[in-house]
Amino acid sequence: MALPVCKEAPKCLMENNDGDLKVNPKAPQILTSIIKPIVVVVFAGQHSIGKSYLMDWLAGSNSVEEIKREAAEKDKLLKQQQVEKQQKIEAQQRSLEEKMNQLKWKMMENRYKRLEKNNMMLKSKLKEQEKLRKEDFQKEVAKMKKKIKGLEAENKDIKNKNSSWWGKLLGIAEFAVKFMFSGAGKFAEK
After folding, report:
1. Is the dihedral of CA 107, 181, 88, 50 positive or negative?
2. How confident is the model at residue 1 (pLDDT cuts 50, 70, 90)?
3. What is the mean pLDDT of residues 44-63?
4. Does 124 share its domain with 142?
5. Distance between CA atoms of 118 and 77, rounded to whole angstroms?
6. One domain for residues 80 and 50
């Protein structure tokens, strides 16, 4: 059932001037001049929920074609925004994956550098130990053995990738990033 279209523009009896709600000074004159039955319509609600659109539709100021055109434009804009958001999410995901790969390489490089440095120190300490052993300094030999065992243990930890807390942390971060973006992609598809 189609609503009848108003012949005249709607009359506002209340005005909103800079946040102050006031009665239109011409309201009594408008009301006394009406002889036919009237309908009073009040719209209230949050910003951008369609109050003006509904009022225009009731007043008959928009044709059906214009309403369809506006709806199609809004739909097109929403789809475009959705595509842009999806592209932004994908770009962020690629950027994070690239940074994670860079971090992995940097950590691996640092690990090898530490290993190389420790091997050099180990060789030096072994030479020093041999020298002290020849000079029969038993006390110094015991200290040196302790340092050597510590370096050997550290080398073992460096070689053992699973015991590295950096490796575990990186694995957790990589899982979290993949989980976040796999969920964000599904959300954007809806």
Report:
1. negative
2. very low
3. 73
4. yes
5. 61
6. no
Strand 14-17 vs strand 20-23: parallel, antiparallel, or unpaired? antiparallel
Question: Structure pTM?
Answer: 0.39
For residue 107 the two structure tokens come to 């950590």
What's the structural domain count of the chain? 2
- One domain, residues 80 and 144: yes
- The C-alpha atoms of residue 145 and residue 159 are separated, in whole angstroms, by 21
- Same domain flag for 166 and 90: yes
Amino acid at 42: V
Q: How far, in Å, CA of 48 to CA of 31, rounded?
A: 30
Maximal C-alpha separation, the chain: 124
Residues 172 and 81 in one domain: yes
Residue at 105: amino acid letter: W
Domain that holds residue 137: 75-189
Average pLDDT of every residue of the chain:
78
Average pLDDT rounded to a whole number, residues 27-55: 80
- Same domain? For 40 and 122 the reply is no
Same domain, 143 and 60: no
Q: Where are the beta strands (DSSP E) in the chain?
A: 14-17, 20-23
Provide mean pLDDT across the span 85-89.
94
